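Is magnesium ion placement plausible here? Inputs below.
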Amino acid sequence: MNASPHSPEHHSAPSRPDWVPEGAGTGFATRVVQGTPRGEAQTIAAPGSKIIRRTRLTADDYVKGVLGRDPTILGRAITLIESNATAHQQLAQEVLAALLPHSGKSKRIGITGIPGAGKSTFIEAFGCHLTDSGHRVAVLAIDPSSSINGGSILGDKVRMEKLCTRRDAFIRPSPSGGSLGGVARKTREAILICEAAGYDVVIVETVGVGQNEVTVSSMVDLFLVLMIAGAGDEMQGIKKGVIELADAIVINKADGENKPRCAAAQAEMKRVIHYLQHNVPGWTPPALLASALTGEGVPQVWNMVEAYFTHCIANGALESRRREQAVDWMHALIMESLRTRFYSSPEVRNRLEAIEHQVANGRLPALSAALQLISVSGIAH
Ligand SMILES: Nc1nc2c(ncn2[C@@H]2O[C@H](COP(=O)(O)OP(=O)(O)OP(=O)(O)O)[C@@H](O)[C@H]2O)c(=O)[nH]1
Ligand SMILES: [Mg+2]
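Reply from A.M.:
I modeled the complex. Tokens:
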């Protein structure tokens, strides 16, 4: 082999190294790829494609980009708020503070339902109906479990195929990883950024598995529970209190042979709702039928949403709900911050296990233990 290290042969033809065992087959071969000369880093791009360099943006760039409705900058602004790096968080707070006066003008809708209820398919049909009627729609997912099973994000990409391509739609999957609290903060901030970018309907999708619903209902104006006939009341959270959170119920998959069963489920839901206390004075949560697959009933869901907002704006319920949500959220952030500081204190870490042991064995009262730990943690000074 006499090709020089920089000759073209080194790129194209595999060569046989010297150490090949005797009698070895053709599988032993190496291909040497020429390195990039120092100082000439190249960007690899398909011929004719535009090379996008990820330059660092300033707070002003983010703010102008979001207000200018640039979807790329909007995506990057959300990535920024999702970052856990301290430097990013400072910049994110600066950007958020500047965007806050431009937020708040959307209809915030939470949609929940058990896995397979048809949330993604419904949001696709609903979102397309909205963009067809001149609205701009942002869809955010909140699903801390998706980082474990990976199912929802993949599903959403497939199920929101049409909506994905609409110029007036923006779809953002759940930030991967992290606690529900962390994902919730990021989603709340993402709502504000989407509003500043001129989306007049923001949909937050969540899988109904318990705690998620409470979290989402505390960040939206209208909480919609998507149900299916025959899945069992227990499973759909009727007894878990999810229905108490609902401002509206939609029984999905009301198509084909399933229609009569859906009508029966609708009647049953109306009976249940009748006995519940409602969140908004003067508003009885309606139970509607829809088919995300055929689109039947979807425009009626939107009409109901508009009627709800007209009602809530007129009686001041929208404003008071948002005010309460903001204050509750502040308290939640205080608790989270104190908790983090407490458990990350080196003194607490050193002593926690031993003190837990004493409490477990009845040698130290829980209250004394708690006060002792709070005192050494430094958060009380
Ligand atoms: N017949 C019928 N099928 C539907 C309808 N809506 C959704 N489906 C089907 O139900 C299945 C689940 O729909 P998805 O939209 O993925 O449900 P999802 O609630 O987003 O599910 P997860 O993301 O797993 O929680 C898919 O096979 C859909 O095609 C509907 O209105 N009618
Ligand atoms: Mg889904």
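Short version: The pocket of guanosine-5'-triphosphate (ligand 1) is lined by residues 113, 115-121, 151-152, 155, 159, 207, 252-253, 255, 291-293 (CB under 6 Å).
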